[in-house]
Amino acid sequence: MYREANGTVATRYPFTGDFLASRLRDRYSKADLDAIEALVDEEMHLPERATLGTQGDDTPSFAAIIVEGFMFRITRRDGRRFIVSIHVPGEIMNLQGFAFDRIDHEMQAAGKVRLGRIPFDRLERTLAERHAVAGALWSGTLLDAALHRKWIQVAAQLDAPQRIAHIYCELHERLGFIGQAGPRVLRAPFTQTDLADMCGVSAVHANRAVARLREFELAEIRRGTLYTQDWDSLRRYAEFDPAYLQAFHSANA
Amino acid sequence: MYREANGTVATRYPFTGDFLASRLRDRYSKADLDAIEALVDEEMHLPERATLGTQGDDTPSFAAIIVEGFMFRITRRDGRRFIVSIHVPGEIMNLQGFAFDRIDHEMQAAGKVRLGRIPFDRLERTLAERHAVAGALWSGTLLDAALHRKWIQVAAQLDAPQRIAHIYCELHERLGFIGQAGPRVLRAPFTQTDLADMCGVSAVHANRAVARLREFELAEIRRGTLYTQDWDSLRRYAEFDPAYLQAFHSANA
DNA sequence: GGGCATTCTTAACATTGGATAATTGCGGCA
DNA sequence: TGCCGCAATTATCCAATGTTAAGAATGCCC
Questions:
Q1: Which of A16, A190, A212, B219 is the most exposed, having the fewest neighbouring CB atoms within 10 Å of its CB?
Q2: Helical packing angle, A231-238 and A160-177, nearest 10°
Q3: Which residue of chain A comes nearest to B157, CA vs CA?
Q4: How far apart are CA B160 and CA B195, in angstroms?
Q5: Are B113 and B45 in contact (CB under 8 A)?
Q6: Tell me: the pLDDT tens digits for B187-237?
Q7: Rounded to an integer, what distance in angstroms lies between the CA atom of residue A135 and that of residue B22?
Q8: Phi and psi of A110, rounded to 5°?
Q9: How far is the CA of B75 from the C1' of D5 (A)?
Q10: Which residues of A3-21 are buried (b: 16+ CB within 10 A; e: fewer)?
């Protein structure tokens, strides 16, 4: 077991500090944590909208941990983009590319993104040696799946304004886990077109949805950044119940 | 590496034969395969509609591999059920319960189901000893996530008849992996209410959707069983592209 | 600082997916 | 044989969303 103040973690684990903050810090040995940090090869910078892993072929031969910024997983349907998931600092992208030789989606930077590059060979070696690290990454995938399940339900059952509200509530909660949730503001570099592509609706309709949240005085969304006085009301409106994220807090393994 | 005719596999691996058939058989040592089969404790039988793991507490202290039948993952929204995913023989349920101390969903048997019970302690021991088995289960979770992503997209972008068609196309493909896909018939014990709860629509509307598939002469669905002359047309109608399942065939690890 | 490109906003109108309710038909099971 | 749950059908109504178009704000680049 290992624990220290957050500032220290940030310097000792410049790439994986957020990953550790979210759920692992208390649960793994210092050697494991160091091994996780040592997975990272070098820092990468993605410009706004850059994509990784053109669908099918051309899968990057590395995974990547998000150090700063937001990334999307996207698919395309006759050219038009659909955003399947959103990822925040501390999360690892492209583990699917590691396990399989093709991936079912592309990855795209929303805004500028800083990544820690994790080469597959290094990852493979560490996983073989460190059972606990493998468990940590596996539980990341399990969480991914839990988020996806919620999104399925949200997409099938809520209307556009609720969906957008739900997305922000979820992000707020997830950013909270890494100590990056402000009390009244959630800064994100999303355009309304991004919001539309998350919901599978037209950009005009996404605008209407945003307008409705404003009209209801639940939230003001400007250039992707959400301002609210009252997260509770917003959560109630979105029918947001963070239970599905509780796994973040409570690992068995 | 290990390979033998399917009949033999069935007797040697009565619980995990389908799991192995799907993607692992060529990739793992005989010792690993035996270890996987040895995960199973005893056989369990679930009656129609039985549920496991009441949301939140009461998580079963075992995982379970489906030997025969179909299972749902479900969530509830003020009492009403929503089906988040469907599982077929060879798939392992409740790995989330193993990794975390709560799960975000319940599991429900559609029709009668035969399961192989996998106690957590046994699972934990095997994973610690056998790196390759851990990898196998992890890739199962990655696949789960890939299926979920497709469902998100389907829920957000397709209408009810297409969604139902897509569900059956996907099931047909998945059953194919374990040698259980008939050329013209897909037998499943789903009611129209089940279909409705998969799509997030009313039962009446699910009925309309089924009627439309019939009217278009794409498929006839009676008591959950689908009959079709022409899977290709059905796939085109559902915009079904099996690429997202290709991971089943092509593991790196 | 000016101008261009993107993003956002608003409006009007068409479409349709889906809810609800009420009724009939069917088939399995006791 | 008769019941009962499920499936199928029909009709009406409404909210959610798509489309198109045009103008306003914003931010970026030179």
A1: A212
A2: 130
A3: A200
A4: 10
A5: yes
A6: 999 988 899 999 988 888 888 889 888 888 888 898 888 999 889 999 999
A7: 23
A8: -90, 120
A9: 24
A10: eeeeeebeeebebbbbbbb
B195 touches strand C (CB under 7 A): no
Q: Which of residues 146-165 of B touch strand C (CB under 7 A)?
A: 159-160
Query: B88-110 burial string, b = 16+ CB within 10 Å, else e?
Result: bbbbbbbbbbbbbebbbbbbbbb
Is 70 exceeded by the pLDDT of residue B168? Answer: yes
Q: Position B215: which residue type?
A: E
Q: What's at A154, amino acid-wise?
A: V
pTM, rounded to two decimals: 0.93
B153 and A200 in contact by Cβ < 8 A?
Answer: yes
Whole-angstrom Cα distance, residue A99 to residue A77?
25
- Pick the closest to residue A99 from A70, A141, A65 (CA basis): A141
Task: Please report, rounded to a whole number, the percentage of residues in chain A having pLDDT higher than 90.
Answer: 72
Dist CA B149 CA A142 (whole Å):
13
Residue B186 phi/psi, 5-degree rounding, is -125, 110
- CA pair distance A98, B236, nearest whole angstrom: 31
